[in-house]
Amino acid sequence: MAIQISPSILSADFAHLADEAAAVSPSADWLHVDVMDNHFVPNLTLGLPIVESLLKAASTPLDCHLMIEDPDRWAPAYAEAGAGSVTIHAKAAGAPVRTLREIRRLGARAGLALNPAEPVEPYEDLIGEMDMLLLMTVEPGFGGQRFLDMVLPKIRKARELLDTRQSSVWLQVDGGVSAETIERAAEAGADVFVAGSAVYGAQDPAAAVDTLRSLAAKASPLA
Ligand code: DX5
Ligand code: ZN
Predict the structure, then answer these.
(1) C-beta of residue 196 within 8 angstroms of C-beta of residue 175
(2) Which residue from 37, 138, 182 has its CB within 8 A of the most atoms of ligand 1, so it is best to mutate?
(3) Domain spans of the chain, in order of start
(4) DSSP 3-state assignment of 111?
(5) Is the pLDDT of residue 1 over 80?
(6) pLDDT at res. 103
(7) Annotated catalytic residue, options 29, 63, 131, 174
(8) Yes or no: domain 4-219 corresponds to CATH 3.20.20.70
(9) Can you say whether the dihedral through the CA atoms of 147, 71, 40, 90 is positive or negative?
(10) Does residue 89 line the site of ligand 1, with CB under 6 A?
């Protein structure tokens, strides 16, 4: 699978979200939308009404990353609204299998996210239930944090697990991804890259996406 870049609008200007979406639309594969509830993470961002508006305004499919408690209850509505991908956090979900299945039934790709300290092995049996595994490379909650190199061995482990099963599940990394760090994550086997500050902090966000993509493509061991 080709390398994909998902710019995070967490680092965009929330007063001009449609323009900020348009600024990356020539280059981005996805628009990453960080939903935070001030409970699962100590930050509050946006929810379904804004996602619904963005779905009308943006031409790029939405990659909704739900950093919320009780995703079993809230996640299906994002799929139903038309998000292309909906990711829930493993430790927040009471019934991850049911929720991942529900997201798929409603027409979205289903993602499962793990925080930096959470091992991937306990979720091996869930691989068939997901379309994407998200490995956080910072503690979730804020943009602009430093990439955690301690996650690299887990990215390699996850890539091995997916390859052994000949799985087509995408392996996403999120947090601190920049021109300085993306090659390390790509080399370890990630294929979908979220980048907030590295894209929206750049003079030309679309060009920043292109640069990230070509750095990742060169470093990636994937065909
Ligand atoms: C952090 C969010 C990320 C964030 C990444 O909890 O999930 O998507 O926007 O921002 P950067 O790329 O600046 O680390
Ligand atoms: Zn995110």
Answers:
(1) no
(2) 138
(3) 4-219
(4) strand
(5) no
(6) 99
(7) 174
(8) yes
(9) negative
(10) no
